C-alpha cells in the first residue's frame, strides 16, 4: 500500500512538473527572442509608442472584466438559483457569445447597429465604448461558467438557514452566496481581463488602438518590438495572477444538496428583460448579421437555394475538424492539468509557478503564442520535430494557450474542497490514489468540466495557431470565417459563423451544462451527509 | 487497487503510449510527396488555380493559408526545416522580408521574363503574379465625384477632415507609403501623413473594413486597393461604394504587386517553379483578372473589362524590392507622424 501511495504521488508530481514546463518553455523562447539584443527591449517597452497603447489595453481590459464580473455573476445566479422563466434556454444561449470569434463578432455588431446597418441605432459604434462592449459581450461567459459550476456544488443549506432566519435575498447573497462564489468570480474576471489584453480582433474592428495593434503592425518590420510587447503582456498577466491569488480567500467548506430557488417576484420581468438584452446583443444581433450576409450574398450570386445548400456542404469537413480539435483539446487539457490544478489550489510553489506561467501564455496574442511554440519545436531534435504541424502538436499548442482555464477552475475547486472527507478516508486507511479517485475527483468534477468546457469553446474559435500549426489542409470553421472575411466574402463568412454557433451550442449543452458529474456529486454527497 | 495489480498495467501503459506515439507520428506526417505552398492569398482566391495545376501537371499540392506577414515570419522561423516550397504573398512587404532573410531562392530567367522586368525582383527572388491599384473609394450618396481631387496629396487638406478612412497597420497601406517615399520623397510623404493625422482620418483594420464602412455610409471616403470594391459589389450589388482612380501621373494611383517565390530550403524547386510559371500562364492570369478583378501581370494578357486600362492608372515607376527593406522605416514614419490606429 505504501508503495502505491508513493507511486501515485510521484506520478501526480511528475504530471504537474511536465505541464509547468509546457507553459514555461514557450515563454522562455519568447523572452529569448525579445531580449536577444540587450537594452533594445527596455527601449521598446518604455517608449511612448508602446506605453500609450498599453495603457489603453489596460483600460479596456479592466472595464471589460468589471462588466463581465457583474454580468457573469448575475446570469449564473439567475440560472442556478432563481425561478426566471426559460432558464434552461437562457443557460445555453447566454454562454454562446463566447464562441463567436471576436473579429467577426465585432464586425457583425457594427454591421447590426452602426450607421447604415440593420438597426442603425449607434452612429459611431466604435472606439473605447465599442471595444469594451464587444469584449464584454464576447467574453463574460468566462465568468458565468465557473460561477455556475461553483453554485452547483455550493451548499444550499447555508442559504436555506439564512432564509429561515429571515434574511432578505440581498443579505443572503452577500453573506451566504458571495463568499462561496467569490473565487470563481475573481478567476473568471481575470480570464476576461487576460483575454481582453490578448485580443486583436474586436479592438481592431472597433478601431481602438491597443498594444496588440502595435504588435501586429510591427511583427514584420521589427520583430523584436512585437516580441518585447508580447513579453510585456506576459509580465502583466503574471502580476495580475499573483494579485488575484492573494484575494482568493478560503471559503466555506461545502457539500451539495437539493438546490434552492428564489422567487424573483417583482424582479421577474426586469431580470428576463436584462438576460434577453444581453443575449440579444451578444448572440442574436451577430446571428442576424451573419444570416443577412449569407442571404444577401446568395441572392447576389444568383445561385439561390442551391448555392446555399452547396455552401453548407462545403462546411462539413471544417465542422468535423473543429469539433474534433475542440473536443480532444478540452479532454486533454482537463485531464493533464488536474495535477497542476491541485498544486495551484494548495498554493505550493510549483502550483504558483504553473498558474502564473499558464496566465502568461494565455495573455499572449495567439500569433505570438504560436510563434513561440514554433521557435521551440524547430530547434528540437527529430523525434519531437516529426510532430511539427501535426494534430498532436496542434492540441498541445491549444492546451498551452488555453490551459489557464483548467488550472484556475481546478485550483479554485481544490482550494474550496472540504478537507474533512479526505481526512476521514485517510483515517479509514484509503491510500492517496483511492482518496483521489473516490472522493476528490467527484467533488472536483464540475470545476474540471467547466475548465474543459472553456478550453473547448476557445479552441472552437482559435485562429492564429490553427493557421500556422494545424496539419496542412486541416481547415476549421474559424479559419474559413477568417479566410472569407479578409477578402470580403461575407456570405461565406456569415454561413460559417452560423454553423460555428450552432455547433458550439450543441457541444456546450451536451458536454458542459448537462454534465453528468454534476448529478453524481449531488447524489454521492447526499449519501455522505 | 492493490500495489501488484497496478504495477503491471503501468508498464503496459508505457508501451501502449510508445506505440500510439509512433502510429500518430507516422500518420500525421502529411503526404511527403506533395509540393507545399504557404499562401497569403486567400483560399477563395487561389484554390481553383491550384486544383487546375494539380490536374494538368500531376503534381500533388498542399496549401497552408494565412496572412502573408504571419507566413513570412513562420518560414523565417522554420529556417532550413521549413516544409514550404513556394511562398505566395499578398503583400510585397512580406516577400521582401523573406528575400532579405535569405529565405527565397533565385528564380530561373525564363520565369522572370514572363512579366515586365519591373514586376519582378532585381535579384530574381520573386516574380509578380497580379497587380492592385491604389484607389479612393467613395460613397456615391454622400460624395459628388466632381469634387474629388486630382491628387491623393490633397486628401490631407482640412476640407477632408475626418472623411478619409485609412488602414495604417495594414500591409497594403504600408506598401503604398513606402512607394510614396520613393516617388515624391520623404518630406512630402511625412507632411502628407501628418496632415492625414491632423484630419483625424478614421483608421480601420483592413481594406475590406473600409470598403464596408464606405458602403454603409459610415465614412464617405477611403484609401484602399481597387479590387475590394468589386468584391463588395459582388456580395451586395446595392452598396453605394464606387472606386475613384487618381490620374496615372499621381502618386495616389500606384500599382502594388502580389508575388510568388521559391523558398531557399526547398528540395522541390523544379515543381515549385512549374507552379509559379503556371500562375503566369494565360489561363490562370485570365481567371485572376476575371474572378478576382486584379490586373494580370503576364505579358499580353488583357485585364477584365470592368477595369480601366493599366496605362490610365499606372504611370509612376518605383522599386518594388525596396517595399520589403524599407518597411521598418515606413512604419516609423507613419507612427511618428501620428497616424496610429488599428
Describe this structure in words.
- The complex is a heterodimer of chains A (529) and B (342).
- With 529 residues, chain A is mostly helical.
- Chain A has one domain (12-528): Orthogonal Bundle (MetI-like fold).
- Chain A is 79% helix and 0% strand.
- Chain A has 26 helices and no strands.
- Chain A starts with a helix and ends with a helix.
- By secondary structure, chain B is an alpha/beta fold.
- Chain B folds into 2 domains: 35-131 and 255-308, D-Maltodextrin-Binding Protein, domain 2 (3-Layer(aba) Sandwich), CATH 3.40.190; 132-253 and 328-336, D-Maltodextrin-Binding Protein, domain 2, CATH 3.40.190.10.
- In chain B, helix 2 (43-57) packs across helix 10 (269-279) and helix 6 (171-184) packs across helix 7.
- At the A-B interface, helix 1, helix 5, helix 10, helix 11 and helix 13 of A face helix 1, helix 2, strand 2, helix 3 and helix 4 of B.
Key attributes of the depicted protein:
heterodimer; A: 529 residues; mainly alpha; 79% helix; 0% strand; disordered C terminus; B: 342 residues; alpha/beta; D-Maltodextrin-Binding Protein, domain 2; 2 domains; disordered N terminus
- Oligomerization status of the protein chains: heterodimer
- H/E topology pattern of chain A: HHHHHHHHHHHHHHHHHHHHHHHHHH
Shape of chain B: globular
- CATH secondary-structure class of chain A: Mainly Alpha
SSE layout and pairing:
The complex is a heterodimer of chains A (about 525) and B (about 350).
Chain A: H1 2-35, H2 40-45, H3 48-81, H4 87-93, H5 102-113, H6 127-139, H7 141-153, H8 156-164, H9 169-198, H10 201-205, H11 211-218, H12 223-247, H13 268-301, H14 304-313, H15 316-336, H16 338-346, H17 349-363, H18 366-377, H19 382-385, H20 391-415, H21 420-427, H22 432-461, H23 464-469, H24 477-486, H25 490-513, H26 516-528
Chain B: H1 3-27, E1 35-39, H2 43-57, E2 61-65, H3 68-78, E3 86-89, H4 92-100, H5 109-112, E4 127-139, E5 164-165, H6 171-184, H7 186-198, H8 207-216, E6 221-225, H9 227-235, E7 241-244, E8 255-262, H10 269-279, H11 282-292, E9 295-296, H12 310-313, H13 322-325, H14 327-336
Parallel strand pairs in B: 1-2, 1-3, 5-6
Antiparallel strand pairs in B: 3-8, 4-6, 4-7, 4-8, 4-9
Helix pairs in contact in B: 2-10, 3-4, 6-7, 6-14
